[in-house]
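Board notes, transcribed. Complex of a protein with zinc ion.
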Amino acid sequence: MTLQNTSHPAKSGPEELVPSRYAVKIGEIDVIVVSDGVLPLPTKMLGYNADPTEHAAWLNDMFLPPDAFDWALNAVVVRSGEQTILIDAGLGLDPALNLPRAGQLIKRLEAAGIDLGSVTDVVLTHMHMDHVGGLIVDGVKERLRPDLRIHVAAAEVKFWESPDFTHVNMPPGFPDALRAAAKRFAEDYRSNLRTFEDEHEVAPGVVVSRTGGHTPGHSVVRVASGKDRLMFAGNAVFAVGFEHPEWYNGFEHDPEEAARVRVRLLRELAETGELLVATHMPFPSVGHVAVDGDHFRWVPVFWDY
Ligand SMILES: [Zn+2]
């Protein structure tokens, strides 16, 4: 028997050895981080513009293997007033990419007692497959409300009509899979899309704002209630982005702009002291940002458990 964090499908009740959800209260608003699983990705696409010696030293300092490591994949559920808002939808299923440990979101929402039919709004930080894939799994659309609102930047929908992959540095197979997933999502959910230009208040205290960079319509979600604040930064911030915000991530369609967005958001987070959650930060990803000399530092919260 191995002690892997996998489910035991034959049993009911608590299924997993490690929990896959973590709840935080932001004033009157409930925020629940739900893990979609992990994505094993080659290290060379993260920080591909870095000096190779510095790159190897960073991996070594973080106790990470030199060739590939698991990226977390976090989605968030926000409850504000009468609305239940799902922010991003996980990878879904793409057997061609061989990523069987991701794509757990739908199952894990159910395990958390969150019925798909109770979701009133979806907010997409962008239309990469690991953010929209859960919505295009067979049978999911039928379980969602027909009047579901899906909020996404107009620039994002436009971008995926004819996406530019000339500045990315992705593993083979990814560009085609990303194109196909975005296309299928846009076709399946066209009538549910509620696009915005720069900013949109999805619910009281829940505001989505376009940053661009990672993709032209990449957006972040700010949650505020009482004195509490939290930002879901999507793909603007990665584990390596604190010490080396100038390192490019191979999934960025405009890596120079993505680096500028990253620095701007990290400065804002350090200044306000608010909580940060990001898609690919280690689960549950809830933490603060500090400034340490000429770089940033991630300070995870103590689990309130
Ligand atoms: Zn992405």
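The CA atoms of residues 143 and 170 lie 33 Å apart. The chain has a mean pLDDT of 92.
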